[in-house]
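Worked problem 6 (solution included).
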Amino acid sequence: MADAGQAETARERALAHVAARASGDPVDPALRVTVNFHPDRPAAGGRPILAALAESGVYASQFVTGTSNGGLTAHPGGDRWRWESRIFGGAYDTAPAAERPVYGALDFRREPAGAAPRFGSAHFRLTGHTLERTTFCYPDSVFEPWDFGTAGRMALVALARAGGRDALDDYVEAQVHGPVRLDRDVEALVLDPCYRGTAVEEAARALPCPLEWHAGFRLGVAELRRRPDYRGQEYVDLGARLAVRGVLDPRVLGDAVTSGGHDQQAVKKVWHCLARFGAPLTATLRGSHPRRTVPDAP
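Solution. The predicted structure is:
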C-alpha cells in the first residue's frame, strides 16, 4: 500500500495532468460541487447508506464502497478504472482504492436538487475550498470526453450551456481528489421532503453536517403515461404499478428497491422519468435561477 506521501504525489500528478489539458477563465468561486445519491439505498454489506456515512465520516468512491447509482465498473481493468487512467494520465493506476476521487457535478445552474439528479434525489453540497482539488470534464466520463477543466481553467460551463443534451445528462462532471469529510468538506446534506419523519431523516441528523430540504420530486401517473418515448413503455407501466395514490416520489422507488421484489435497473429507469419530469422547480433545469433549498429548523 502506498504511504501518505505517495498518495499525495498521485493526487498532484492527476491534478497537474488535467490542468495541462484545461482552458478558460477561473471558475466562479460562488459555485459548488454537488454529489447526488439515493439516501435510502443500502451501502456495502446491506447497511443503510447514511448510517455507514455517519460511522465513517467520509464519502468514498465506488472503488471503496462497491456500490453506485450508475454502472459498477470500478475494478482493475473495468470501464471506470480505464476512464480514470485515461483522464488522469495513469496517476491512480497503482494507488489504493481510498485515494481515488469522488464523483459529483458542478452546480453552475444552482439547481435545488443538485447538479446531477439522475444519480439520486439527495445531494451533498460541498464547500468552496474543495474546488481547488477538483477536476472537471464535459460530458460525463462515460463518454470518454476530450474537454477538461480545473478551478483555475474552466471553459466547460459554456460548453454545457450550448450542449443541447437531455437535462439528466447535461452536467459538468466533477472529480474531487482527496478525502471528502462530512465534517469539513460538506456545506449541507439536501434531502427530498418525502423523507421527513422517516428513518432517513433520523440518520441524516446523525451526520456532522447541516441538513436542508429541497421542494421535492413528484410525478403523477397521468404525466408519466405521456412519456413512453423517454425510457420505454415497460418503465412507464412499472412506474404506474409502483405509484402510491397515483404519484411517484423518491421514497416510493426506494421502497421498491429495498423490498427486493423489483429489478433495480428497471426501477432506476423509472427514477430517470421521475427525475426528469417531476423535478422540483423543473423550469430551472436549463435556467440560471438562484438555488432554492430550505435549512432544517433548529
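Discussion: Confidence is low (pLDDT under 50) at residues 282-290.
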